[in-house]
Amino acid sequence: MNSITLILFLLGFVLLIAGAELLVRGASRLAMAAGISPLVVGLTVVAYGTSSPELAVTIQSTFAGQADLAIGNVVGSNIANVLLVLGVTASVSPLVIDQKLVRKEIPLMIGISFLLLALGLDQKIGLIDGLIFTAGAIAYTVFVIGQSRKEIKVIHEEYDLEFDGDKAKITGPLVLLTQIIFIIVGLGLLVVGSRWLTDGAIVLARLFGVSELVIGLTVIAIGTSLPEIATSVVACLRNEQDIVVGNIVGSNIFNILFVLGLGSIVSPNGIDVSATALAFDIPVMIAIAIACLPIFFSDNRIARWEGALFLGYYVAYTMYLYLQATRHSALIPFSNVMLLFVVPITIVTLVVVYFRELKANQRQTKIAEKVERTLSAQPQAPQPYRNPPPALDAELEKIAASPHGKETE
């Protein structure tokens, strides 16, 4: 490993952090200037930007005839986004989940994952499939921005409160241009930084005798998720949690709709879907998307232990891929332990957590309704003075003894 590679490796790390910082800062301020919520920016602008490496890899691999890499890049990235990126971020700090994600985006992510499985049953994502996906990406973007514009009054009130009503701080043309430049430069630094960091890690792994297979399953797989990891961690540290979760969910939606859609349109022969992807990888992606519902619903947050659970499953998934690719003798025992013990215990835990949270919410709703009924049933009559002050007693007696008081009587 020469000195230039080491320098690029270190510079890649620095550029990755700097790019994430600029992207998060620009995206959050752009949301203020445009009058839309940070969640929507995370679901659209940041999600599109952090999905750009997957788009480049997919288009390049389709023209190079590497179909497995094209579909594996998207599916593997979606798996890593939830298990690895959310796992790392939630381990740093518990994440608060917006209810809109649970009601709309998470079911949409699950539905789109099932759509990929259905359209890929013929083992090809063709031109028509690509047009459907791309149209879905455009429609979703328009829908999300349109929904956010309906809430513009509430959003502006929040921003006015934060900036003491000084709109020039967030809506001036120079401010808007600055944030757009931050976003573009941040995305560029993310792409370059992740590439240099990944290339340096590959050289370092080879230096220590690590096989190409292990490098592909670990270094390259994590490398494509580095923009999401860096962006999410920086956003979490800046307390922009809407951008964190919006970035992950939005990236997963756009990876399927936009990346696979555009990739299959520009590819001469479409994108082939292998039997292995249909039998294992895509179902795993769907299962992980479904698992997000009870975890996101429980207390509307992702706790640290749930982040650790995500990370543990990502390690297990990577180990399974390694054992399967090398045809290791430990594959069958490992699979049996995962399928017979780990997965069922996790499912039972998530179901228990989900129903406990559901019961707690129902109990709180009933208590609130009971209190409201009790208050509405009691007339709010003015309460008389039980012990009026002596001065007030004397004044009342004087009024009663006066001619006007007697006439009134």
Task: Please tell me about this protein's structure.
The chain is mainly α. The chain has one domain: A middle domain of Talin 1 (Up-down Bundle). The protein is 83% helix and 2% strand. It has a two-stranded antiparallel ribbon with strand order 1-4. Helix 1 (3-34) runs antiparallel to helix 2 (38-50), helix 3 (52-63) runs parallel beside helix 12 and helix 5 (99-119) runs antiparallel to helix 13 (275-297). The N and C termini lie far apart (107 Å). Mean pLDDT is 76; it is low at 404-409.
- CATH homologous superfamily assignment: NCX, central ion-binding region
Name of the top-level CATH class: Mainly Alpha
- Give me the number of helical elements: 17
CATH architecture field: Up-down Bundle
Shape annotation: globular
- For the largest beta sheet, what order do the strands appear in spatially? 1-4
How many strands in all?
A: 4
Poorly predicted runs: 404-409
Q: SSE order, as H and E?
A: HHHHEHEHHHHHHHEHEHHHH
Instruction: State the secondary-structure class.
Output: mainly alpha
